[in-house]
Automatic annotation (TrEMBL):
PANTHER family: LINEARMYCIN RESISTANCE ATP-BINDING PROTEIN LNRL. This is ATP-binding cassette domain-containing protein. It is a peripheral membrane protein. Keywords: ATP-binding, Nucleotide-binding, Transport. It comes from Actinoallomurus acaciae.
Length: 326
């Protein structure tokens, strides 16, 4: 129970997973409230899929405990499974069946009453705008349509918690936006909690709260707004005639450490708007353009992990390549 007297949709305490010598998840703890859209944000290999696998009862924890919809993920696996819907990275639809047949098959597995089945199938197909394609075989669907059908299937048995592992990975930006509009709509129409993983910063913005996970640990957890505010600094980028001279002048005259990122001299200051007029007056190096930005989730990630999510992913890809060569 929490302060509002409601038990959380997900409660996690010291949850850990070891694979041989590797601690993939290092004793994490958090709570997800009922009705929340909660995101796990982190680079490839951070431990997101392993965590979601444990919460869904597919991966056995090495330590700690977790409760989903009030049920123990180790001691009450069947109860947990009845109360959750899954949308995973690897598609598991039957391509040679129609959209409706796929849903019906799933509904039967979950023991949905026959009388309720037709109405619920129609309802979930409407939710993801696939009602008019219900009699088409899945093999004729685009990647985005398949993902939408998987979401519909995950919702069919009215789960209390819907788990989505990277729900928009591999989709084009327009389709990704459409998936997010369906997920946002769900929040209004169903009594459901959504737990998802992503490595897209811009998608984390849609979540009520996010946990940033890196190397198997939760680095920080809060609303996207509070996380951005916690960085407390604006990012200023200037294009100059002489970057080296500008960096030296910033250090000597303003005590600000700058570097060149994305082709511009870049630094962080508490209030960009107040700083820019002083910059023009006192830098002593010609400035061609100035760009001031409020902190983004990229800055949050950088602030708490010391790296950008892209660099972290490039690093893990390098590591994977090195492992392959051995
Ligand atoms: N079955 C397994 N056996 C051994 N190691 C594993 C296994 N599953 C995951 N790992 C390792 O655990 C770590 C965390 O992996 P996980 O898949 O949870 O990360 P992730 O954040 O979900 O990344 P991705 O987005 O790439 O799936 C990685 O180092 C991975 O190689």
């Amino acid at each position: 129970m929490n302060a509002t007297g409601e038990s959380p949709a997900i409660a996690v305490e010291g949850l850990a997973k070891r694979y041989g010598d590797l601690m993939a998840v290092k004793g994490i703890g958090f709570e997800v409230r009922r009705g929340e859209v909660f995101g796990f944000l982190g680079p490839n290999g951070a431990g997101k899929t392993t965590t979601i696998g444990m919460l869904c009862t597919l991966v056995r924890p090495s330590g700690g405990a977790a409760y989903v919809a009030g049920h123990d993920i180790v001691g009450e696996r069947d109860e947990v499974r009845r109360n959750i819907g899954l949308v995973f990275q690897d598609p598991t639809l039957d391509a040679y069946l129609t959209a409706e047949q796929n849903l019906r098959f799933h509904g039967e597995l979950y023991g949905l009453p026959r009388e309720a089945m037709n109405e619920r199938i129609a309802q979930v197909l409407r939710m993801v705008d696939l009602a008019d394609r219900k009699d088409d075989k899945v093999e004729t669907f685009s990647g985005g349509m398949k993902r939408r059908l998987e979401i519909a299937r995950g919702l069919l048995h009215s789960p209390r918690v819907l788990f989505l592992d990277e729900p928009t990975v591999g989709l084009d930006p327009q389709t990704r936006a459409a998936i997010w509009s369906y997920l946002s709509r769900l929040r209004d129409t169903e009594d459901i909690t959504i737990f998802l993983t992503t490595h897209y910063m811009e998608e984390a913005e849609y979540c009520d709260r996010i946990a940033i996970i890196d190397h198997g640990e939760i680095v920080v957890l809060d609303t996207p707004g509070a996380l951005k505010a916690s960085v407390g600094k604006d990012r200023v980028q200037i294009a100059t005639g002489d970057d080296e001279a500008a960096i030296t002048a910033l250090r000597d005259r303003f005590g600000v450490e700058a570097g060149v990122h994305e082709g511009a001299v870049t630094f962080a200051v508490p209030s960009g708007e107040e700083f820019v007029p002083r910059l023009f007056a006192e830098l002593g190096v010609p400035i061609r353009s100035v760009h001031v930005a409020r902190p983004s989730l990229d800055d949050v990630f950088m602030n708490y992990t010391g790296t950008t999510i892209r660099d972290a992913e490039a690093g893990s890809a390098d590591m994977a390549r090195r492992m392959m060569r051995r």
